[in-house]
Amino acid sequence: MMQSELILPDEGFDTWLHAALDEDREQRRQQRHPFFRYVTISDGERTLDQAFCRDIASDSVGLAHFGAIENEQVDLEIQTEGATFSLPCRLKWQHAYRGDVFLSAGFVYSEALPEFRKLQQMRIPNGAPRRIEKRYPFFRSALIRTCQDGEWRDIDGFTVDISNGGVGFLLREPIEMDRVVHAQVFSHNDWANVVRIRVSWCYPVEHGMYRLGGEAVQSYRDSSGER
Fold this sequence. Notes:
By secondary structure, the protein is mainly β. It has 2 domains: about 5-25 and about 130-220, Thrombin, subunit H, CATH 2.40.10.220; about 30-120, Thrombin, subunit H, CATH 2.40.10. It contains 2 helices and 14 strands. The protein has helices at about 10-30, 115-120, and strands spanning about 5, 35-40, 45-55, 60-65, 75-80, 85-95, 100-110, 135-150, 150-160, 165-170, 180-185, 190-205, 210-215, 220. The strands form 3 sheets. A 6-stranded antiparallel barrel has the order 2-3-4-7-6-5. It is globular and about 55 Å long.
């Protein structure tokens, strides 16, 4: 009988966690903080795109949205638990990420900075008491493979954050609780690894998307290196 070594969590998951820790250190150096919120981008009269706020700094917000924004001057409507903030911004840069997803940074105009300061005060510090496990921002393009009725289907989305053994996703379709899925997460240089995730919860959010949380499933490797 082959000897087996318990690996907990999956080695691929450790790769994700180490990447998140590196990013957390870099964000702290740049004084950027995780701030996941839903955003509507407009030109003051019409909606240009639906987006997600990824992080926040002293005078700017990092955004992810589905498609390029032609306007340089935009209004960001950021939704929070208790209020909605409207901030005039200048998009200083944007670039294609994966598929139809673009990343950009909106720099708040000086006249809107007092309102922006109120938004910053609503930021929940990383590792706040409401979290059992400290979570780290972890934004990556993701592909979830799930098997239902003998057929595999792919659901695309993003990772949002990660903790010791668990990861949060933002997906285009829901997945039922307790299902074990194969999560493929892409690095910035397009390299990817796959980790098995058991779905802990899933619920609908804005823009027709779904938030999902899951735990890394234990993996076993025998002496031949097979799983």
